[in-house]
Amino acid sequence: MDARFTDEQDEIRRALRELLHKRCGTEDVRAAVDRPQGYDPGLWTALGEQLGLPGLALPEEYGGAGCTRTEVALAAEELGRALAPTPFLATAVLAAPLLLALGTDAQRAELLPRIADGGLTAALAVPGARLGTALGLTGPPGADWAGGGRAGGVQARHTADRWRLYGEADQVVDGHSAGLLLVPAHTGGYARSRVLLFLVAGDAAGVVRTRLTGLDATRGQGRVQLRHVQAELLGSDEGTDVRAALAGLGDFTAAVLAGEAVGAADRALERTVEYVKQREQFGRAIGSFQAVKHRLADVYVAVRAARSAAYYAAWATAHGEPVGGLALAQALEALRTAAGECIQLHGGIGFTWEHEAHLAFKRAAGDELLFGPAHRLRAHAAEAAGLFAGEEVAV
């Protein structure tokens, strides 16, 4: 592994940081999450048109930049620093790779260029709070994450040359606003039940979407109800292993989330250091007290260690080494530590709900609820690696 960034990687990070610095300050973030979409469409358009962020890892033939997944994970660090509310995770990380891997030539040609230029957003509508399991991060890929074949989740029926879906998916990242939904659904009846992926237009007849009030407002979530909705099968129903495709996507998703968490943790530490240099007690800056120095030194070490793990995961995800779950566990713990100390050392003002430190703290807690928690990420990684063969791993 060459730990140095390439010129292209440095340029991606620099350009992204400059744009987010101008258009995604704390007040911009708060204003964006209050929009119906949960993000600023103008910022998303700029990220697509100026930087090509949605199509960073898509092939050039579909309007993408042709970069590797490493560049996507590195770019996520800058999005995390700003805690930018965008459809990046749902569209570019979860949906686009599935369309590329499983879609027919016609489906890829129709949808991927629209995703690459930022004109189309997408969401993966996994039922319930099972996204971490579906991605193979907190449970085996074969687990029944899709709701069960007899009832629950989303059911698919094929009648008169059409597929129709019925069911519900909660806690869908950007499910309330995405223009395209990728829906895993059961078909084949209970005895021969299998899971296939379907494409559903967000505004299709029979789709009822509700924006949820989540812990982390910068990571918008929605409830998606499907009432006999007409759908299009993604790819072919012959030889398509949806569970394997999702599990293969999990490590990449974890690497991206780890990068986001490291960026947010680093910015929380920077804010805290800036503040303790200014706030005074007993006639001196509180940053000069040894106890405060020790606490911030611990945070610094945690953030540096998490960054090293995230960078390795960013490299490894493009080389077939599944270490994303471990990097994500370390990054989430670092973010929770950095955000907690940020709140504590800001004193009384830090404990007010409106303070920006809480945005980082909620991101850490929200991501653990969606993709973790950290101890389950580690336990599943250990089990998958066979570290405790013959022993039960408590999760």
TrEMBL record:
What cofactor does this one take? FAD
In which organism is this protein found? Answer: Streptomyces fuscichromogenes
Q: Which domain of life is it from?
A: Bacteria
Domain Acyl-CoA dehydrogenase/oxidase C-terminal spans what residues? Answer: 254-384
Task: Spell out the family assignment given in the record's similarity comment.
Answer: Belongs to the acyl-CoA dehydrogenase family.
Q: Which Pfam families match?
A: Acyl-CoA_dh_1, Acyl-CoA_dh_N
Q: Which UniProt keywords apply?
A: FAD, Flavoprotein, Oxidoreductase
InterPro entries with a match to the protein in the record:
Acyl-CoA_Oxase/DH_mid-dom_sf (IPR046373), AcylCo_DH-like_C (IPR036250), AcylCo_DH/oxidase_C (IPR009075), AcylCoA_DH/ox_N (IPR013786), AcylCoA_DH/ox_N_sf (IPR037069), AcylCoA_DH/oxidase_NM_dom_sf (IPR009100)
Record has Flavoprotein as a keyword: yes
Q: Where is the Acyl-CoA dehydrogenase/oxidase N-terminal domain?
A: 6-118
Protein known as = Acyl-CoA dehydrogenase
Q: Which GO terms describe its molecular function?
A: acyl-CoA dehydrogenase activity; flavin adenine dinucleotide binding
